[in-house]
Design goal:
The structure holds two protein chains of two kinds. By secondary structure, chain A is mainly β. In chain A, 0% of the residues lie in helices and 50% in strands. Chain A has strands spanning 4-7, 10-13, 19-25, 31-37, 43-51, 54-57, 64-66, 76-78, 87-94, 103-104, 108-112. In chain A, the strands form two sheets. In chain A, strands 2, 4, 5, 6, 9, 10 and 11 form a seven-stranded mixed sheet that branches. A four-stranded antiparallel sheet of chain A has the order 1-3-8-7, with no helix packed on it. Chain B is 0% helix and 55% strand. By secondary structure, chain B is mainly beta. The radius of gyration of chain B is 14 Å and the shape is globular. In chain B, strand 7 (56-58) and strand 8 (64-68) form a beta hairpin. Classes of the chains: A mainly beta, B mainly beta.
Chain lengths: 113, 114
């Protein structure tokens, strides 16, 4: 099924652990991005990519790394998890036509204890 | 810089009555504007989008929004609320100068009473 696939759906980490949130899309979209959603704050942009090999920081990049080696995949890495990173993470993608609207994944709920 | 302000954090209506969710934006050029809906524990679904065509935009599930440049507003409306409309709604502007990244409002939670 065409769309954005995020794994895992749920994850509990201990402070200091590392992990990678996976995001894959099969729509040949150039643009991909990661958002975090916290109560009362909407969604905030962490990192985004305008194509393979190109990434840039968003509004809240600290503590996260990304890479874009292929058009399809855009993983988000937490190098040393902190309780402040407890959140719901969404990956989204869009082709190079802004007016169409982004396609969002179903989210990853991360808890850091 | 672009920004979005949703004027109500929570709106409560009775089933069958009109819905109005308010959104103001700030943009130095013609924006692309969106409304997304998020049902509990679900992802985000695009309701409708404005991209400088018609100022009155019709979306899914009977929702529509009107772009008013003079008021910098993009309010979401529906003539008659249904119980299934209970969700959180986000007004969003697209920053086309920065890779099309989305800037979200804080969200409005819509409750629908029977």
């Amino acid at each position: 099924n065409a769309g954005v696939t995020q794994t895992p759906k749920f994850q509990v980490l201990k402070t200091g652990q590392s992990m990678t949130l996976q995001c894959a899309q099969d729509m040949n979209h150039e643009y991909m991005s990661w958002y975090r959603q916290d109560p009362g704050m909407g969604l905030r942009l962490i990192h985004y990519s305008v194509g393979a090999g190109i990434t840039d920081q968003g509004e809240v990049p600290n503590g996260y790394n990304v890479s874009r080696s292929t058009t399809e995949d855009f993983p988000l890495r937490l190098l040393s998890a902190a309780p402040s990173q407890t959140s719901v993470y969404f990956c989204a993608s869009i082709k190079n036509n802004w007016g169409v609207g982004y396609t969002f994944g179903s989210g990853t709920r991360l808890t850091v204890v | 810089a672009q920004s979005v302000t949703q004027l109500d954090s929570h709106v409560s209506v009775s089933e069958g009555t009109p819905v109005l969710l308010r959104c103001n934006y700030s943009s130095s050029y013609s924006p692309s504007l969106f409304w997304y809906v998020q049902h509990p524990n679900k992802g985000l679904q695009l309701l409708l989008k404005y991209t400088s065509a018609a100022t009155l935009v019709k979306g899914i599930n009977g929702f529509e929004a009107e772009f008013k440049k003079s008021e910098t507003s993009f309010h979401l409306t529906k003539p008659s609320a249904h119980m299934s409309d209970a969700a959180e709604y986000f007004c969003v502007v697209s920053d086309q100068n920065q890779g099309g990244k989305l800037i979200f409002g804080q969200g409005t939670e819509l409750s629908v009473k029977p």
